[in-house]
Write a sequence for this structure.
């Protein structure tokens, strides 16, 4: 729409009479103008404060998740343990999940649904294992896709290693494939999660002969914090993935596959775009990735009933050089540089995107659009009723089958156009 060329109409405040006295009408008009200006300023201040709160919430690491799932009762019959949970969108989805309680000190593995009573608002599920804490005393906690606490609990042999990153060393789990494996999988967890999240992908990686490196990165509670203590939403964290790639190459890797969940997907995309080793990255496997932060931030503004204009103001604070004084960022976050819907044709690494269409945290549409715009490089696999980053938990057989079949194609030996096939004369 072209800008209007009309001259705006101004309402004049009546002038005072010549004797200096102001009429009653003029006093009310002036008072209304002053009061209106004060109200507008107050509203603007309130909107700015809300926008700043929204912006800072996005980039500030959360030390403890909200305990938003309720345990109503724990039942025991010999060695069999079951729990009655309040029915929620999380607890009523089939699959195997982690349940953290007691402020994260307790961790249990929750299995299949035994019974579900919508009328009572309850669901009875098996408790497959309790790794830490007193589950009998658990009353509230949070649902997680991380159903194992460490490789040993999953029956996986792993080494604890340290990777040199900015500010110190970041711990990682190294799971070696039989024979060493010349292709390594670097596994990158999401925002507010830990490397536990990636344990689900290790068994299929091992089947493919991939050595796996499950990393930590800045501000995740294990790796050194960034100087500003803020998430870069992928714009800074990719450097820690690049350091992990350097570690892999120094220890026998020749090529790489990056796995990323949620914000970890955004980090992997940045790594494939900016890393000095990007030519060695054979493929990306992304689960519920953030393809477009503007879309995700708008979605969360809507979920939190924040007016869209205020949400956009918060985005502006994240990306503007002056905004960093308010947000605490050491440098602006370039959201446009991480908009892979707009940059779809620039994705040059074969990418598998797995995303549930009922994802409540990261909308799936940008993932689907990315594949539509760059079908030569991006394959989209839609799941349903899996929520956010829990596609494996809801249907592990399908998740592993899709990943293994796709990666086998991508990792097949490359033919050299300059060489003739052995059977050719």
């Amino acid at each position: 729409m072209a800008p209007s060329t009309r001259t705006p109409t101004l309402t004049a405040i009546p002038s005072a009479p010549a004797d200096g006295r102001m009429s009653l009408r003029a006093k009310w008009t002036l008072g209304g103008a002053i009061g209106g200006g004060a109200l507008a300023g107050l509203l603007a201040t309130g909107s700015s404060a809300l926008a700043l709160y929204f912006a800072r919430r996005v980039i500030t690491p959360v030390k403890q998740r909200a305990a938003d799932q309720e345990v109503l009762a724990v039942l025991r019959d010999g060695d069999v343990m079951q729990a009655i949970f309040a029915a929620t969108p999380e607890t009523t989805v089939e699959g195997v999940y982690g349940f953290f309680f007691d402020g994260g000190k307790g961790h249990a593995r929750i299995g299949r649904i035994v019974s579900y009573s919508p009328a009572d608002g309850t669901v009875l599920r098996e408790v497959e294992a309790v790794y830490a804490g007193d589950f009998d005393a658990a009353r509230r906690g949070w649902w997680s896709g991380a159903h194992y606490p460490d490789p040993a609990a999953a029956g996986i042999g792993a080494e604890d290693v340290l990777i040199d990153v900015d500010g110190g060393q970041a711990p990682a789990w190294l799971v070696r494939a039989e024979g060493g494996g010349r292709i390594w999988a670097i596994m990158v967890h999401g925002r507010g999660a830990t490397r536990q999240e990636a344990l689900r992908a290790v068994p299929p990686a091992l089947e493919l002969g991939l050595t796996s490196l499950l990393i930590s990165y800045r501000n995740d509670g294990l790796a050194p914090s960034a100087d500003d203590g803020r998430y870069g939403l992928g714009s800074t964290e990719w450097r820690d993935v690049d350091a992990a790639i350097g570690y892999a190459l120094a220890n026998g890797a020749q090529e790489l596959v990056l796995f990323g969940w949620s914000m970890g997907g955004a980090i992997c995309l940045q790594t494939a775009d900016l890393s000095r080793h990007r030519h060695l990255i054979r493929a990306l496997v992304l689960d519920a990735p953030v393809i477009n932060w503007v879309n995700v931030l708008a979605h969360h503004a809507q979920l939190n009933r924040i007016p869209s204009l205020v949400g956009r103001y918060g985005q502006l604070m994240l990306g503007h050089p002056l905004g960093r004084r308010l947000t605490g960022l050491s440098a602006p976050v370039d959201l446009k540089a991480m908009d892979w819907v707009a940059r779809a044709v620039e994705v040059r690494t074969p990418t598998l995107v797995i995303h549930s269409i009922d994802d409540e945290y990261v909308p799936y549409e940008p993932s689907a659009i990315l594949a539509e715009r760059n079908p030569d490089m991006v394959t989209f696999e839609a799941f349903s009723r899996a929520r956010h980053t829990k596609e494996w938990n809801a249907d592990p057989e399908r998740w592993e089958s899709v990943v293994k079949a796709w990666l086998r194609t991508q990792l097949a030996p490359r033919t050299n156009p300059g060489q003739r096939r052995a059977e050719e004369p």
The first helix runs from residue 24 to 59. Residues 351 and 378 are 5 Å apart (CA to CA). Residues 69-144 form one domain.
